Amino acid sequence: MKKILFLSICILSVLSACKKKADGYTLTVLSGNGQSGEVNSTLPDPVRVQLLRGEEEIGYKQVKFETSTGQILTTTTDDQGIAEFTWVIGCEAGTQTASITALDPGVVFATTVANATGTVPASGWYKPCGIPSTSLYFAFIFQSNSGKLFAAGNQSVYASDDHGKYWYEVSGLSGVYRMKQFGNTLYALSNNGILRSQNDGIVWQSWTPLAATELARNNSHWYATRGNGDMVYSDDDGVNWLNCKGNYTGQNLQFMFTSPNDIVVGASPTGLYYFEDDSLLKRYMLSDNTLGYYESNTLYFGYQGNVQSAQDTLFTASGPYWNFSAGSGASRNLKKYNGSMYVSQFADLYKYGTSGVFFSSPQLNARLLDYVVLSDGAIILSYEGIGLVRKQ
Questions:
Q1: Statement: residue 328 has pLDDT above 60
Q2: What is the rounded CA–CA span in Å between residue 223 and residue 257?
Q3: Choosing a second label site near 349 at 20 to 30 A (CA), which of 110, 187, 302, 322?
Q4: Distance between CA atoms of 104 and 162, rounded to whole angstroms?
Q5: Does residue 335 come out as left (phi exceeding 0), alpha (psi in the -120 to 50 range) or beta?
Q6: CATH no. of 125-391
């Protein structure tokens, strides 16, 4: 009766939980404990442990190495009872731990713990975890209202739930070149049409087959631009799309905004436009304007080539707002985060209210494609030919 009772307890406790602790064994860290290394890098020395029973060296036993940041490795002790592991520091600065266990099926011989410290590089930036080393191009970075991050590179889309420290590939999405959010719904613009998600990007479903480069909404009206220069609108939730009338003849509307009075503003290399009564009408004759944002009835955008100062100039609809010397190249991606205004220019990121470069690194001498500034001050950046980097 006692044997039957013991067997039942083991089954109910899950087989792995029925492992017995063997007596007399010790597992000791010989070397590699207490090291430090930059986050998302390999420690210089392996962690070496030895399994003993008394003074007897126990060989050919399995040893499992599991870190607090998710690295799991298994190996076997040699004839001297020694096993070693290469420890990859995760993307958390500070103390990281490794639980090391010597075991056989159903038996735990001994356990021990090793520690390491993750440090942020002196430059302040590092490549986050989860992104393949071959992913060197991310056209955009997008942050949903919940704080979840998305980035699209090559054909894949990656997401992060922890402020850009760890990333994972999103299933059901490919070829995405822009994402937007309206209300609680996310929209992904791709070569295969527009998909949407109503659970913060976990599940995606097709919304419309329209291949759009930009998307905007005002109440029940939808507006979209296409790569050939067309601008279309829909009043039936994307079922049917009609061409807008007007005098727009450019090839690329770069971005769109909606205002309370049902105007959509688009910027292209040939000027700024507004949308009214199903027509797209020219309003500002400005060339080389850059991405901006719309807030409190004011449009903010960058403009390269001020003939008086030969400087890049930030404009609002009412006139000059901010001037700074930015060297060669055009300003890109004007955004607002945490109450401050940011604008990128080649490899640098400028912050409103500062006289110089807010973020720049000689090691990242590449074109800055996009960026996101997080609520805790961290910045996620996408560099051409480098991929995603994170600065704390």
A1: no
A2: 10
A3: 187
A4: 36
A5: beta
A6: 2.130.10.10
Asked if 358 and 350 touch (Cβ cutoff 8 Å), the reply is: yes
First to last CA, the chain: 62
CATH superfamily membership of 20-119: Immunoglobulins (2.60.40.10)
Which pair of structure tokens corresponds to residue 205? Answer: 């479903």
Contact 120, 392 (CB under 8 A): yes
Residue 84 has pLDDT above 60, yes or no: yes
Per-residue pLDDT tens digits for 46-68? 999 999 999 999 999 999 999 99
Question: From the CA atom positions of the chain, what is the Rg in Å?
Answer: 28
Q: How does pLDDT run across 198-246, given as a tens digit for each residue?
A: 999 999 999 999 998 889 888 888 988 887 777 888 999 999 999 876 6
Q: Residue 278 and residue 260: Cα distance in Å, rounded?
A: 16
DSSP characters over 228-247: TS-EEEESSTTS--EEPEES
Contact of 34 with 48, CB cutoff 8 Å: no
∠ Cα 155 158 160 (to 5°): 170
Q: Quick one: average pLDDT of 351-375? A: 82
